[in-house]
Amino acid sequence: MCEGCPRPGSGWRGFMDLPAQRRLTPAGPWIDLSHPLSADMPCASIFPTPRFERLREVPKDPFNVTQMTFVSHAGTHVDSPRHYFNDAPGFEGIGLDRLSGEGVVWHLPQQPDAVIPLAALQAATPVLRPGDILAIDTGWAAKAGTPDYERHPSLSVAAAHWLVAQRIKLFACDFATPDLVYHLRAPGFDWPVHHALLGNGILVCEHLTGHAVLAGRRVEFVFGALNAVECDGAPARVLARLLAD
């Protein structure tokens, strides 16, 4: 074991300094970009299937009570840096300014198992600004609930490092993980995209949906992740609306 080598789960580099948010002028209504919470919401096959059970039910009981059982990475959710770094915060240490603000939606249609190259991001518009939120629409949300959903695209490692250099604050995708799809991973796979993004304080939202109508525009986002203490992920109600500029 080498001296000075980072321990597994350590090495978080903190949140990047970002520009102050400017005053925004909305140009449309809020749109919900979240999969409804249900037993049918998208969930990676490596995790238990979500369960929703009625513990109390009218008219047998005086009220209805539902018990929900699912991992924090099922459905539309946000990853905190604690997902890979034990020396990083869960949601109790993430300010609302990191979960909201302006950004862009890029339409980047992909084939099954594709790895999105750096060149595709560099050519996309509108141009990213420091402090932006980036959501990509690959068309994968429409495949939720089908076998093809498991053959989702991913980000190349070069693309992930480029996003760090652009100083975005949150990356959102319409599939299960921006890292290489499960069945293509070689032994020793170490989730380099998550490490690059979360390691530099860039939050990650997965299983986004409904954002295709916003593609090619600047947008205001709200990622309503639950304030789960020391948690690696949290379900989120994600909202967005078009901006005037």
From TrEMBL:
It holds the Pfam family Cyclase. InterPro entries: KFase/CYL, KFase_sf. Gene3D superfamilies: Putative cyclase (3.50.30.50). GO terms for biological process: L-tryptophan catabolic process to kynurenine. GO terms for molecular function: arylformamidase activity. This is Kynurenine formamidase. It comes from Aquabacter spiritensis.
